């Protein structure tokens, strides 16, 4: 480990040489590489963490550039999945760190594989379904995780330490119904609010990884940058006695009972389709063959293909297919239409 690079951080006495050494031997997983996940990943890599895995299911869009600091216009032209563009950028920031970008949709079939060995999990997701899946995995394995969210100018954060604090399920009874909450599609998002909560999230991760549990924030952080309000809400300290996840060990999201595989994407007019069983058995589809097949399909044009994805226009909408069979249909929020078009054109 090069001490010189991290000198200013080592001079901060709660970290010191010992903390820096611990950090160099530690690992974290960032789930979702959007506004929050981008900044958190960048800060962790600059801090000298040993290993960082970044999981993201999306392809970069122009509207992401307003707030997602790992990406630029060249990434947009290259059309890479965000996880792979993030990996490239993070390696340029700090080549000494082991960084792994995984372009995948975290779901019950792959969560235990993709989250394995994390000493802390950082929430950069945009939906409660995935957060409750992280919560289940964290409880089952005893892994700390840091819930973070941002909408408009408001940002929320809570440290969740299995067996020590309440869990996310203690706070929410179940997944909010579709359309019942504002999303970054309807309420927008202010980049500085996302970066602020990512900075707090990273600091909490540094406390965990350098063994400073006494410094962790207890309760729910609730900040509204536009209103200028900075609050820490002291949540109940003990877990809810009726919580199915942390009290009864019923991991409904990890066990897939509560998990759907067709989801609308926050911030995009798009639906994602994850074919059942594919992620689990590692099946790959032949994008070259599919691309050839689509060339004669009615209503399909503008086909472009790379080793990472196949993209085409389909009846005025855009569809992107990944090698694991996962697809994004842009231009709709209608999940049943997405399923229909997927089965008609991809045929899995
Ligand atoms: Zn709980």
Can you give keywords for this protein?
globular; single chain; 2 domains; Rossmann fold; 32% helix; 8-stranded mixed beta sheet; binds zinc ion; 6-stranded antiparallel beta sheet; alpha/beta; TATA-Binding Protein; 348 residues
What would your notes on this structure say?
The protein is α/β, with parallel strands linked by helices and 348 residues long. It folds into 2 domains: 230 residues, NAD(P)-binding Rossmann-like Domain (Rossmann fold, 3-Layer(aba) Sandwich); 77 residues, TATA-Binding Protein, CATH 3.30.310. The protein is built from 13 helices and 14 strands. An 8-stranded mixed beta sheet has the order 3-2-1-4-5-6-7-8, sandwiched between helices. Helix 3 links the parallel strand 1 and strand 2. Helix 3 runs parallel beside helix 5 and helix 3 crosses helix 10. The chain is globular and about 65 Å long. The N and C termini lie far apart (48 Å). 45% of the residues are buried. The mean pLDDT is 89. Zinc ion binds next to helix 8.
